[in-house]
Write a structure and sequence with these properties.
two-stranded antiparallel sheet; 3 domains; mainly alpha; Serine Threonine Protein Phosphatase 5, Tetratricopeptide repeat
């Protein structure tokens, strides 16, 4: 769930009012809005005493009291209220003065508005309440004030999120405790089957997890995609959270609808401590019975999509989108920039990009380098993707490609099969060779990797190392018996891929 920001909750309201010189014919009320925005508190207070229409609103139905509340001007709020301003007025989007004050952390104004008898449970059009706004920003004193005034902790936003879910998502332990003590439902599931425990896995707060589990939260609760709190915490690297869940009975071998397990996700991102812990608690590396794990898909938010739009739609004039989500695979370029390498569910994508076979596993690089951002995208993915459009990987393959040698060692010691292949025939050895990690290549060979196993297109580990310019890996593979005479489906041998002069010397005497 994106951080809840109501459209009207812009921190600097005066930007909408528009700074500038007061024009002739401007009313006192309009001038007051300008003064509130320009932070001229002294003149604003003087003018507030003279305004005639105390409930005057701008084009968006935002009142004078809302402007004063948003800026934290308690004295001006008192003046307006004494003149009869309605403390419960709502703007076009349903936002109130209390919501503005709560969002910006103005405790004294909240206390003042509560004394005026406002309803603390008033909801904006998107379902947000003052309690939710204070919660998501961590304003504990305001949360307490609102709860003591009878605010309902179980109200929901339109997309089904409660105050407790927000506190859990952002890791506010004390606020979560206050909400629970006031009757917040710890087991509530929204339309996507997301629970507070699922949200807590994003922040990694073990304290919140303990609170929820103590009150009966299901440690294996999964959303509609089959994603559990353990999976998310394992992907991000929240060791204490993972430990808390497992010790409370979470199933370490649970998989989501795409076959992704907590062990795979921890292996993917190189969280050695979590991998070690999960293996010790009975997590099973992928075997021939499981046929690998379906690749993790990433749902790019609009802000990420916009940054990538030119790359994705290279050569396409019309880049308009329906909706604000696109399914993409991301990769890190050598200079550290994110690069879109595949796009799904959109026929307008660059055809060459979609057919890029040598970047089929690029999502792993993105996950390995984009931890929190990527897990947020992953956990919130709504769209289903055809599995025949994704690559399949085992835990060992993911760790091998990402260069996590300690995890490769742990997995193979626990029985991970080095010669399992993805749906394109790739093995952990081919992926490690492609990535140029000599240490992992050596480890895999010691564990019985077939050095001459070829992908479905005939590509071998030696070809992968040579094509990507990894001379040390190519030399190691040759020393261990890699066959330089193997041909791919185009009839090419490793020599045809040897562009680097140093590497060519290994084959051309």
């Amino acid at each position: 769930m994106k951080k809840l920001l109501s459209a009207a909750l812009i921190l600097v309201l005066w930007l909408l009012a528009g700074p500038g010189i007061k024009a002739q014919g401007t009313s006192l009320e309009e001038e007051l809005i300008y003064l509130l925005g320009s932070k001229d508190r002294r003149h604003a207070a003087m003018l507030a005493r003279d305004v005639r229409y105390v409930d005057y609103t701008d084009l968006h139905d935002r009142s004078l009291l809302m402007y004063a509340s948003a800026n934290g001007y308690g004295g001006i709020c008192r003046i307006l209220l004494k003149k009869g301003a309605d403390p419960g007025n709502q703007a076009l989007d349903g936002v109130t003065a209390a919501m503005y004050a709560a969002y910006n952390g103005h405790k004294r104004i909240i206390r003042l508005l509560l004394k005026e008898g406002i309803n603390p449970d008033t909801q904006a059009i998107d379902g947000l309440t003052a309690l939710m706004m204070a919660t998501q920003n961590g304003y504990r004193p305001i949360v307490k004030l609102l709860l003591d005034a009878g605010a309902n902790p179980n109200l929901l936003t339109n997309d089904g999120y409660s105050s407790l879910m927000l506190a859990a998502q952002y890791g506010y332990d004390e606020i979560a405790r206050m909400l629970i003590d006031k009757g917040a439902d710890v087991n509530f599931r929204n339309i996507n089957n997301v629970t507070a425990l699922n949200q807590a896995s994003l922040s990694g707060s073990a304290e919140i997890a303990k609170m929820l589990l103590k009150r009966g939260a299901d440690p294996d609760s999964r959303n509609n995609e089959g994603i559990s709190a353990l999976m998310t915490a394992s992907l991000i690297g929240h060791y204490e959270f993972v430990k808390t869940l497992v010790e409370s009975g979470a199933d370490v071998n649970l998989k989501n609808k795409d076959g992704v397990s907590a062990l795979f996700l921890a292996s993917l991102n190189g969280h050695t401590e979590i991998v070690d812990f999960l293996l010790a608690r009975g997590a099973k590396p992928d075997t021939r019975d499981t046929d690998g794990t379906v690749a993790l898909m990433i749902n790019a938010r609009e802000d990420i999509a916009e940054a990538l739009i030119q790359k994705i739609y290279e050569g396409t004039k019309d880049v308009s989108k329906s909706g604000d989500h696109m399914i993409v695979l991301l990769s890190k370029t050598e200079n550290g920039d994110l690069e879109a390498v595949k796009l799904f569910m959109d026929r307008r994508a660059n055809a060459a990009m979609l057919a890029s076979s040598n970047k089929a596993a690029a999502f792993i690089h993105s996950s390995g380098n984009g931890h929190i951002a990527i897990v947020n995208l992953f956990i919130k993915k709504d769209a289903r993707v055809e599995t025949n459009k994704t690559a399949r990987f085992t835990d060992l393959m993911a760790a091998s490609l990402n260069g996590h040698s300690e995890i490769v060692k742990l997995l193979t010691e626990k029985g991970a099969k080095p010669n399992l292949t993805g749906n394109d025939g790739a093995t952990a050895l081919i992926l490690a060779s492609q990535n140029g990690n000599a240490e992992i290549v050596k480890l895999l060979l010691e564990k019985g990797s077939d050095i001459n196993l070829q992908r479905s297109d005939g590509f071998s580990a030696l070809m992968a190392a040579v094509k990507d310019g990894h001379a040390d890996v190519a030399k190691l593979l040759l020393e261990k018996g890699a066959d330089p005479r193997l041909k791919d489906i185009m009839g090419k041998t490793v020599v045809d891929y040897a562009e680097d002069a140093e590497i060519r010397k290994l084959f051309v005497k």
